[in-house]
Write a structure and sequence with these properties.
Shape: globular
Oligomer: single chain
Number of helices: 3
Radius of gyration: 10 Å
CATH class: Mainly Alpha
CATH architecture: Orthogonal Bundle
Strand content: 5-15%
Structural class: alpha+beta
Strand order of the largest sheet: 1-3-2
Largest sheet: 3 strands, antiparallel
Helix content: 40-55%
Order of helices and strands: EHHEEH
Distance between the termini: 27 Å
Number of strands: 3
Length: 59
């Protein structure tokens, strides 16, 4: 985690079992609620990761 309660795309990807590129794409698409910190950096709240994970497990 980059900050307490937030994940980088790399860490989020490991938790979801997908690539960091896929996580960034999901963030850009709004499927994972995340905040773009700089041109190339995202921070993903732990709650957003849990919400996305629950959503994909329902389908």
């Amino acid at each position: 985690m980059s900050r307490k309660g937030f994940y980088t795309p790399d860490i989020a990807a490991k938790r979801l079992g997908i690539t960091a590129g896929q996580v960034r794409r999901l963030c850009r698409q709004g499927k994972i609620a995340a905040e773009k910190i700089t041109e190339r950096q995202w921070q993903i709240p732990e709650t957003a990761l849990k919400d996305y994970s629950a959503q994909i497990n329902q389908n």
